[in-house]
Amino acid sequence: MNERLVVIGGDAAGMSAASQARRLRKPGELEIVAFERGHFASFSACGIPYWVGGDVAERDELIARTPEEHRERDIDLRMRTEVTELDVDGQRVRTRDLESGAEAWTGYDKLVIATGARPLRPPLPGIDAPGVHGVQTLDDGQALLDSLERTKGRRAVVVGAGYIGVEMAEALLNRGYEVTVLNRSEQPMATLDPDMGRLVHRAMDGLGITTVGGAAVTKILTGDDGWVRAVATDDAEYPADVVVLGTGVVPETGLARAAGLPLGVHGGLLTDLAMRVRGHENIWAGGDCVEVLDLVSGRERHIALGTHANKHGQVIGANVGGGYATFPGVVGTAVSKVCALEIARTGLREKDAREVGLAYVTVTVESTSRAGYYPGAAPMTVKMLAERRTGRLLGVQIVGREGAAKRVDIAAVALTAGMTVEQMTVLDLGYAPPFSPVWDPVLVAARKTLAAVRSAG
Amino acid sequence: MNERLVVIGGDAAGMSAASQARRLRKPGELEIVAFERGHFASFSACGIPYWVGGDVAERDELIARTPEEHRERDIDLRMRTEVTELDVDGQRVRTRDLESGAEAWTGYDKLVIATGARPLRPPLPGIDAPGVHGVQTLDDGQALLDSLERTKGRRAVVVGAGYIGVEMAEALLNRGYEVTVLNRSEQPMATLDPDMGRLVHRAMDGLGITTVGGAAVTKILTGDDGWVRAVATDDAEYPADVVVLGTGVVPETGLARAAGLPLGVHGGLLTDLAMRVRGHENIWAGGDCVEVLDLVSGRERHIALGTHANKHGQVIGANVGGGYATFPGVVGTAVSKVCALEIARTGLREKDAREVGLAYVTVTVESTSRAGYYPGAAPMTVKMLAERRTGRLLGVQIVGREGAAKRVDIAAVALTAGMTVEQMTVLDLGYAPPFSPVWDPVLVAARKTLAAVRSAG
What we know:
Chains A, B: This is FAD-dependent oxidoreductase. Chains A, B: Its cofactor is FAD. Two copies of one chain form a homodimer. Chain A is α/β, with parallel strands linked by helices. The first copy, chain A, has helices at residues 12-24, 48-53, 67-72, 138-150, 163-174, 194-206, 254-258, 306-320, 350-355, 408-416, 421-425, 441-456; strands spanning 3-8, 30-35, 76-78, 81-87, 92-97, 103-107, 110-113, 117-119, 132-133, 155-159, 178-182, 210-212, 217-222, 228-233, 237-239, 242-245, 249-251, 283-285, 292-293, 300-301, 334-338, 341-347, 360-368, 379-387, 393-400. Chain A has three domains: 3-41 and 53-117 and 250-320, FAD/NAD(P)-binding domain (3-Layer(bba) Sandwich); 121-247, 3-Layer(bba) Sandwich (FAD/NAD(P)-binding domain), CATH 3.50.50; 340-456, Enolase-like, domain 1 (2-Layer Sandwich), CATH 3.30.390. Chain A is built from twelve helices and 25 strands. In chain A, the strands form seven sheets. Chain A has a five-stranded parallel sheet. Chain A has a five-stranded parallel sheet with strand order 9-16-10-11-12. In chain A, β5 (92-97) and β6 (103-107) form a beta hairpin. In chain A, α1 (12-24) runs parallel beside α8. Chain A starts with a strand and ends with a helix. The model of chain A has no long low-confidence stretch (mean pLDDT 97).
């Protein structure tokens, strides 16, 4: 008896799920049909800033697997086909071919929803003017590159100073632009505490990127030719030959909402640990359209990140394919960089801890990436949060140069394991002068945080 | 009532203990006397290869704290003073001033033994010839540098291909020497499994370092001037203008043995978790002269490594100073490099697992340090061992280029936490294209190892 799996969304989560299910179930046992409304499947959205900036030469390098390659693996991937309706009771989806306009219903035995996220496009006057770009899809990236080619001026404004914002600031700097970043919060990287964000701000200043905090964009101004010419805030106008929006994303769950599937407070689908949509035995969801459990705060969060999407896909594929796997949750690890400045965070910020009622102590230490005497030893700032009394690790933020970002993995594993900072002080981490001071910066932070826990009582 | 703490050995463990005790107890409460037989205190022995190789310009950069600085902190550090006898019942040590020859007894209330390790110098003909060098102390390093200055020839032989051996091979290569490494095992880095050691071998070949495996040195040959001229094995003679011994170290515990203190099978002092010598309420020991518990195998090991010595010192200092701290053990993490090749290991090798009766599965994967499309993405080989059936992580070995070594920390924390490879597959590690593929190499290894655990049954 041949079952049919339908996958909505042909990117990381959807195609990982499809591929993993295919590994476990032969075409004679499970038919797999996947619908993707865009022009590309299985591409690295995280790589777009590096393509725009010129570190990655060709668009196609960002494509992990082409539609043809998926089809060779017996996955019936239909591109440019949008799912317009989900009929849960009828176990079917309605699709529209975006080229021909043809509509059809496709039945499923099992369904995977991997519709991703969509960029927040604030409804500002001028937001749709030519020269204003999002950077979520490869088409977006190409359109931006075309604009960079077309514009004569070299002034760029980036709206938003989160991951995409700072990465796009670097990309535009690499392309020779004079870059201004307008940010609602006082400091860039609001996923860090403001004191750590200030370090990023200072480094961006040093790179010649103008970062304006507390800037609420009110409109996009255009010239006589209709092309963007400036971005306006309450206080000022910032001339711009090109504008990039890095204003965050929200789960793309219109379809799921219309079908009555359970959504969380952030608008993402709610699943169980096997990534099954709550209350629906034969529907799974993963990637940027779901909410995930934050293992540190115990709350649901929405995090759009390719590495989670891939894991979700694996877990879903295993379960759909008759195996068993779970995704227990995240600890909120994220790394980024602006030129040589590395930025990393995991776990809770001060404000997160307060929000969930955790009393904490926090310590910030300065250390170096290598033994102080070893060439290339670079300064690194590590901020650590631990719960009062118990000393349980709550979060770590790191800003530094080479070797800073991936050190956050130490804390990510420790958070997952529920370690205390006291346990962390004796972790057996790799030490040799080219790689670390004799006390790794994370251990230095753990020692000082332990002292702070004790003196806080 | 003023107590006296005596510390034997003025390097990492001893002086960390002294410093930490001083932080907790004022000079009026605790007198601290430390004896060091050498010319230097608190120096980084791990840094010597980089000084010899020219990465570190000045010897004094390797000195973390001078004797004067210790004395300013009210630690009575007596240099060039050897402890020649330990009278446990009488609570006193006999010392000899190595300059004047004067002997004296000094009583103690509390004692810290931090006598370190001494290099294994095989009793070979010619081993004491000029031009043959150990590299354990700063004096050794200076003597070697003097030899490099003095010799006209440019052929160097390194005996031993462990950490010191490979690091010294790099140092001598940097100094323009033609380097041959003679190694007893078939592959360099016997702290790795041979299949991973082979990757190091190949990389050393590529650098122009000749590595000879299965080479048992029988004698050192000298010229008419008495200076070394070659190293002989059973099979061959290797011309040498300078010879460096990297043949390992053993705990320096002659004093402790004579005093009847408990030693383990590796000749190191045995302590409890508070680093107190077993059965002796007022004697602590730490650093390269003790054995430590391997948390993965449950066996005692001897590991001479500055980062452990510093932790031991902290723990001892806390306990001596009236606080409380413990050192639970190690998981056996070590990192090193030969030029751009990074080498890392933690936990058990295959042979270690067999020795303690653990059934295991093992998998080796190839991945990259960054997203494949990101500039500078370098190949990385990760070998992982997990226990059969339970899937508990047992060990990880990594060989690769930039970004390889410190990734072992992920496994070090996971080992400490007793994680299974299944738990590791969903670890929330830092991901961005400049730092990692979307599946970190350690996660790729965990996934494949999980599959191997399942199919092994």
